[in-house]
Design a protein that fits this description.
The protein has 2 domains: 1-60; 63-112, no CATH class. It has helices spanning 2-23, 30-41, 45-60, 67-75, 77-106. The chain has 112 residues and is an all-alpha fold. The model has no long low-confidence stretch (mean pLDDT 91). 79% of the residues lie in helices and 0% in strands. It is extended.
């Protein structure tokens, strides 16, 4: 029951984020605004406890969330055969660029 309350909080905050993003014509997607609202709301115990229960439930069934991705890959196997090496190169390159940028941003500065 607590996990259901947590899911309700997640959906309510996402919906509120969507309303704010569209109503205020923000340059961010509604779910991003909802995540920021969730970040603020997690400081409040009546939100944090049910959301934690919902997160535990979702994490315990995480493997089920990969089924649609697997079906999509099998469905578009021809595209994967045609563009697979290019897609792999882009994924590897973008991952390395992300890692390098993160290291450069988070490294401690020297005090000379």
């Amino acid at each position: 029951m607590n996990a259901l309350r947590g899911l309700t909080w997640l959906l309510a905050l996402q919906s509120l984020g969507e309303l704010l993003a569209r109503g205020l014509q923000l340059p961010f997607p509604g779910p991003v605004v909802g995540m920021v609202l969730l970040l603020v709301a997690l400081r409040w115990a009546p939100v944090r406890t049910p959301v934690a229960a919902c997160a535990d439930f979702l994490l315990s069934h995480l493997s089920l969330l990969f089924v649609p991705v697997g079906v999509g890959v099998i469905t578009h196997l021809g595209l994967l055969a045609d563009y697979g090496l290019r897609m792999l190169a882009v994924v590897v390159l973008s991952t390395w660029v992300g890692i390098v940028v993160t290291v450069l941003v988070l490294r401690p500065r020297r005090k000379d």
